[in-house]
Amino acid sequence: MSPAKKNIMIGLAGQQNAGKSTIFNMLTGANQHIANYPGVTVDKKTGNYHDELGRVEVVDLPGTYSLTSFSLEERVARDFLLRERPDAILNVIDASSLRRGLYFTFQILEMSFPVVMALNMVDVAAAQGRKIDHEKLGRLLGIEVVPTVGRKGRGKLELRPALRRAAREERGEDEGFQDQHGLRINYEELEEHIAAVHEHLLESENLVKAVPLRWMAVKLLEGDSEALKLLRRHHARADAVMDAVSAATAAFQEKMDITPADYIVTCRDRLAASLVEQCVEVTKADTVRFSEKIDRVLLHRAFAPIFLVLTVYLIYELSIVQGYKLTFLTWPALAWVRSFAAGLLPDPGLLHDTMLRSMSLWMVDSVNTLLNYVPIFLILFALIAILEDSGYMARIAFILDRVFQSFGLHGQSTLPFILGGVFTGGCAVPGIMATKGIPDERSRLATILTVPYMNCLAKIPLYTLLVSIYFAAYKSYLMLFISTITIIMAMIIAKLLTSTILRGRETAPFVMEMPNYHMPTLMGVLRRAVDRTWVYIKKVGTIVVAVAIVVYVLLQFPGLPAERMAYFDGRMNEAVAAFHEDIRETAYAEILADAAAVLNLLNVANTYREAKLAASTQEASSAVDARYEALHPEIFPLLRPRDPEARNLSRSLRSLSTERSNLRTAIREETIVYSYFGTVGRALEPVTKYAGFDWKINVALISSFAARESSVATLGVLFQEGADEQLSLEERMGQEGAATGFTPLHAFALILFFALYPPCLATTIMVKVQTGSYKWMLFSIIFPTVFGLAVASGVFTISSWLGLSGIQAMFGFYFLALGTAIGLSFLPDPAWKRPGTAITHAKEA
After folding, report:
1. Distance, CA of 820 to CA of 703 (rounded, Å)
2. What is the DSSP string of 757-790?
3. Reduced to 3 DSSP states, what percent helix, strand and coil does the chain have, rounded to the nearest 5?
4. pLDDT category, 639, cuts 50, 70, 90?
5. For 193, phi and psi rounded to 5 degrees?
6. What is the mean pLDDT of the chain?
7. Confidence label for 738 from pLDDT (cuts 50, 70 and 90)
């Protein structure tokens, strides 16, 4: 016998909702790490613990119902088993759904791995009147079976030594797969064909080392496409083997009038039923389960939509609304970090900062903006974990799947759309993060690419501005339009994407399981929320710096023309000269004689003011005074004046500081106009004029890429020249619009484009994080730009030809879009021509 390994790897495998996560947490505690499997975005969660022999690494495989090649998760799990060849498999199975769970167990056993079964949720099975003889089940399967209740930690002490016993021997890397247990499924009439194919497979030494041959023979007869790829990769006479498989399949089907694949399923199910009959004692017959009683209410035809809306509203209210309030608490901490970083950088100049300072603070601000979402994510992920662990998440998918299927989406697309702001006030970043729960790759991609069309909170200021100016008499109509047109357009775009560029993407037969309801555990929910939030922090942190630098360059360079800089320098010099004149006859004239001294005074005054604002108590405020008086005794009287002369000079200092602040703001804002983005805005005028946009609108839209709120701020800058400063932005834009011919139709085209506009910087980063692809990140920018501009240009140009007003164009476009969406919903989707949604209930068949 080979010596026992000290460090071993365990693959944790099982069906969805079998309690895999709770068993994983029970075994590994806090020693966990989350990454992606190579080449895909499926989470790979690993953890470890130590026993008396060494380290045990546990890899949590994706939850799947089988190990076929239908879905990405199934292939990821199967590929991991074949390539990594863990020392043992821990198969987690729901004791209350033993017969269905055994179907997966048989496939693991066929792969010849050492297996230990965690018969989880035995308490639920007992409550349902099912007593399972786990020892007898273990003898029949030829493996150790350990009863567990993961959420209560029961079974942990028995599982660990059982895993060590299963993985007891060293195994060479080139050593082939060997049967590790006594169970061998008898496929009866198919056995002779399995044996014949097995003989062909034995011809390849590479194949013998790569896969278990009996499992391979069964997979080939099932028609598994991934098994065929393995055959071609490892067998020199793959075509000859496939000819033999085809002949065997045809002969079997002609004799038995059933395909080998269906026959295999029948044999496995028959064996599972036999094992259940031998090992399960039913103590309460004909009882209605607790979960079924709840479902009679929650899934009632009339009540289900009501409960769904209430649940979604609660998630939205707690995560977005209440979570946003928590950012008021976290932002001061992030602001302190910024102040600390600013203190380490070179001091600000009078009007211009060094590149090191401005770029560093730009990146800190970008990171802070994203980290400020953390409270929202913690609440959001905790609520999602509660929905998942309780079993209601599967019900949400069931309720809405039929509608979303018509547009190539998935029932679990609901939550991302809601969080993205399906009506108003959401955020696309948590919306895209919530797409991780969508099991179908095509639907997940389509959801990721359409969530940004929802009405995030940052779009509201521009909507409010334009509606107030141009649609004051039709506010309710416009707000209803904005609240609903985005979901209509998202459905249309989802249908277009899934019918074209996503057409060949992975889809999976939609098998929907209704798991039993469970009470989520506090530790499980907290751990899930923290794990997922940490993944967000790490991934965003690695990408945001690079993207922030690119945006910084495009918004800051090439900078202002020399004559504009001379203008601003001249105004600053005049302000400094006026300040010198005010202090000329005072005791401060000498110490503030040069420009460097004045600059130091201004910077100290700014930091003093910030420190005083941050001081929350009288004691803290006094401490700030004492500290600055000790550090800057000569100029402190100007910071905290106590005599008439000092107060006069302090007023002069505030005037100088205000003028400096205004000039710095003007330079920053005008830099945008002359930046590469600004140049692009002017260059785009010949194209965007068909949508009614001039260069100012273009610059506002481009600048809002970094953050949606920037659009209104930029418009405020662009429309201030020559305007009366006492007028609001609405009044200034209204006056200039009247003079330049900007009408409600222009405003409607702008609203429409903004609704279809590319996602903001944070959202595009999240697209990259969730898709793992810069290609999709670029697509999420380019496609909405082209599509939105085409729609806005078409609406504006055609409406202009027809002489329609803005409100008339709105009604016309709305009914056109609604009719298009309804029409597209009837177009058949080739991906769903296969057998329809399979809905099973977690109940013994």
Report:
1. 32
2. SPP-HHHHHHHHHHH--HHHHHHHHHHHHHHHHH
3. 65, 5, 25
4. confident
5. -75, -35
6. 80
7. low
Each residue's pLDDT tens digit, 45-100: 788 888 888 889 998 887 776 666 556 667 777 778 878 888 899 999 988 888 88
User: Using CA atoms, how far apart are residues 40 and 37, in angstroms rounded to an integer?
Assistant: 6
Count other C-beta atoms under 10 Å from residue 523's C-beta.
14
Q: How far is CA 571 from CA 472, 559, 660, in A?
A: 40, 18, 9
Q: Are strands 32-36 and 130-132 parallel, antiparallel or unpaired?
A: unpaired
| Rounded CA separation 567/653 (Å) | 22
Tokens 């005072």 map to which residue?
A: 586
Q: Contact, 362 vs 548, CB < 8 A?
A: yes
HEC assignment per residue over 265-295: HHHHHHHHHHHHHHHEEECCCCCCCHHHHHH
Q: Which residue, chain included where needed, has tokens 């590319």? A: 758
830 pLDDT above the threshold of 70: no
pLDDT tens, residue by residue, 502-517:
887 766 655 666 777 8
The 8-class DSSP code of residue 33 comes to E
Task: Give pLDDT tens digits for 245-271.
Answer: 898 888 888 888 888 888 898 898 889
Q: What is the arrangement of strands in the sheet containing 144-148, beginning at the earlier edge strand?
A: 32-36, 43-50, 55-60, 8-14, 88-94, 115-120, 144-148
Distance CA 221, CA 201 (A): 13
Radius of gyration of the chain, Cα coordinates, nearest whole angstrom: 33
CB 657 within 8 A of CB 602: yes
Start-end of H helices in 584-643: 595-614, 618-631, 636-639
Q: Which two tokens stand for residue 825?
A: 């919903």
Distance, in Å, from the CA atom of 70 to the CA atom of 3, rounded to the nearest integer, reads 39
3-state DSSP assignment of residue 148: strand
For residue 800 the two structure tokens come to 């202009």
Q: What distances in angstroms separate CA 47 from CA 39, 43, 155, one per listed residue?
A: 21, 13, 18
Peptide bond into 558 cis (omega under 30): yes
Q: Token pair 């389960």 is at which residue?
A: 289
* pLDDT (0 to 100) of residue 542: 63
Say if residues 88 and 69 touch (Cβ distance below 8 Å): no
Dihedral (Cα; 480, 415, 767, 556), 10-degree rounding? 40
